[in-house]
Structure formats: structure tokens, C-alpha cells
Amino acid sequence: MSTNALTPPQQRDRIHYIDGLRGLAAFAVVLSHALEMQGYHASFYGVQPIVQLEGTWISTLFVPAFAVIGWLATIAVKLFIVISGYSLMLAVARSKDGALRGGLGGYFKRRIRRIWPPYYATLVLSLALLIIPGMYSERGVYQDLAIPVTTEAITAHALFIQNLNPAWTGLINPPLWTIAVEEQIYVLFPFLLLPLWRRFGSLTLVAVGFGLAYLLMALLPPEYYNNGRLWYVGLFACGAVGASISFSQRAGEQRWRGRLGRWWVVMALFGLWALVMVLPKRIIPGFEALVPHTEPFTDVMFGFAVMSLLICLTENWKRGFRARSLLGFLESRPIVGVGIFSYSMYLMHAPILAVITLALHNLGIIGDVFYVWILVLGVPLTMFGTYLFHQVFERPFMPQAAKSFT
């Protein structure tokens, strides 16, 4: 091994490149919402922009960025789901009996301790923004998605079910809908997904994950189905299968480990996903009218592509890797450090950005020049604010393996 290769880390329980991926994904979401704070991209959801772009060099630069960064943020959310499946399955796949550490009680105790305290602190702080004059005044900004705050919406958020009704999803703190999706999948994992994996294997797990979603597609109104992102169960299953292939001692999993843990396979699967995203719209007249919501189908390929990427990265992680490589970058201290507080970053970035946006607008910073200020000043302040939140409300409840890194 060359002198710039890192020591093979098989002895460590925590795979830090997973944190690195989380950090990059969370940062993409922060950037996306920073550029949406004046309401331009949020107009898709019914928020009217506060001003029109002025046609300066700034808008010429940032208009394409809306689409690119917005797309990356959408991908980042799906990446979170696959990574969650991979992370939760790691301990099971590494164990000899395929059982949850500490049984059901231990599993739910860990999930509650890890997810609930920062989440409920975010909910309280988000509601506290109501006392800031002008915060919820329908000014034509991203934060308008959060109003009106109703008793039903507060109850739905407290119960992690706000994604099940379009009337609740974006209220209070718009990004929190994804936490509800993950929490629901966390409940399904030990009662449905894990027994399927034990009894029938990995292929059945993925098939049921997506198959159940497609069955519900036929039974539910489209707006409720799409809003609930029910096919994310399949994405989670892809991540869980990836962990099983990476670490399980089952003969079948070991064969797939050799087949999927190759970079050309990763590139081929991502290429196929890109193809199914674009090709039908180009060759089938009126395709978007026939199939207005294609994500439940194209996300199958995305799930398999990310699964292959995780398997490939993990195989390199096992062997050791050079510092100047993709894996070395993802395992570097700054990137992993961001990933360690990515949950807090995701929870609190929108309220903090909303406060900064209100302050900038009150100072007369509006229109094109706003984007320079929100990126140069707003994003760093948001990162700092979410880090402080992490120190107070998240870090005390994290596992020691994560805390020891920082």
C-alpha cells in the first residue's frame, strides 16, 4: 500500500464515508433552499415570487443554478433514504444471527433517542418564529409554505404523519416531511422488511418494498400517494440490501458483492437511470401527460445505482484507500465533520434561512443582489446556527462512535 493510503479500517464500527455522503447531501439541500428563499422555485408549490429577476449578470448566473441545485437537492433527499436503509441494516448484516441488537426494545430506544429530541426541538423553535414580526406575512418567500399553522398541522408533525396529507406537508417547517417518511419506514423495518429479508432474502425485500408502493398507487388518490412518497420504502430496501451484500455471510450475497462492487457497474446503473429519466419523454409523444409522475418508476433504477455505489465504496473501504481518491475525500475530516451534524443541518436550515431572508429584505437587499448575500453570508451563518443547534439538541443523544470523531 502506498504511503498516502489510509489504514484499512475494518476494526472500526462506524463507516465514516457514509457521514461524508450525508454531509454533502444536506449541504445540497441548504444551497437549494437558500436560492429559493425569495420564492422563485417555490412558485411551483404556489408561492408567488416577491420580485422579478432584473436581468443582470447575477440573474444570468443564478437562474441556471436554480434548476441544477434544485435537482441535486431532490436527488439528495432520495440519497438520504437509501443511506438510511444501508445504515440501519449494517448491524444486522454484520451479526451472526441477523437479529437486531438489543431486540425490538433496543432498536426503538435507539431510534427514539437519536431522532426525537432534535426533531421536537426543531418543531418548537419553528413555531416560535411566529413571534418574529413579519415572518409569516405572505411576503412571497419560501417561508410562506409554512403557513397557516393549524392545530391539525401541529398534531400531524408531532405524530410524524404530516406527509400523508398535502394540507399538512409543508406547514411549520417545510423540509420536515422527509423526517416523517423516514420515521414511518423505521417502524416498518423490524415488522415487515427485516422478516422478509430473513425468510426470503434480499431480492424479495426490494420487490416487496416497491411492489407494496405500486399496489398503494392503485388504491390512493394521486395527490396523497405522491405527497406521501410511499415508494421510498423501496429506496430504503435498496439501501438495506446493499448493506447485506456488503457484510452478510450468505453465499448469495457474497456472489453479488463481487458483481456489484465494481466501478463500471456503478457507472452503468447510473447511466441506465439517466436514460430512463430522459428517453421516454423524448420518444413517446405526450408521455408527461400519460405518466405525470414518473418518480415511483425511475427511482427503482436510482435505488439500485446508489446501492451499487455503496457496495463499491465499502469494498474499497475494507481494503484501504488512498487519501487522494473519492473515498479519501468522503472520509476526510472536514466532510465527515459536516456529515456528523447533517441531521441538525437538515432540521433547522429552513427556519434560520427564513430569519436571515427577513433581515436582508428589511435592509433593502432584494432582487438579484439578494442571491449574492444569501450565499456569501446566509449559508455560512446557517451552517454555524445548525452546528450550535447540533451541540445543544443532537450531540448529547448521538452514539459514542459518532461523537468520538469530533
Give a brief description.
The chain has 406 residues and is mainly alpha-helical. The chain is 70% helix and 0% strand.
Structural account:
The structure is a single chain. With 406 residues, the chain is mainly alpha-helical. It has one domain (16-403). It has helices spanning 16-36, 57-94, 103-128, 151-158, 177-200, 202-219, 222-228, 232-247, 251-260, 263-283, 287-290, 295-319, 326-330, 333-340, 342-362, 368-394, 400-403. The two termini are 27 Å apart. The relative contact order is 0.16. The mean pLDDT is 87.
Largest sheet: none
Computed structural class: mainly alpha
Mean pLDDT: 87
Please compute the radius of gyration using only Cα atoms: 21 Å
Order of helices and strands: HHHHHHHHHHHHHHHHH
Number of domains: 1
- Report the strand count: 0
What's the helix count? 17
User: Strand-residue fraction?
Assistant: under 5%
Give the low-confidence spans.
none
Which bin fits the share of residues in helices? 55-70%
Q: End-to-end distance, in Å?
A: 27 Å
Question: What is the 3D shape?
Answer: globular
Q: What attributes characterize this protein structure?
A:
406 residues; globular; single chain; mainly alpha
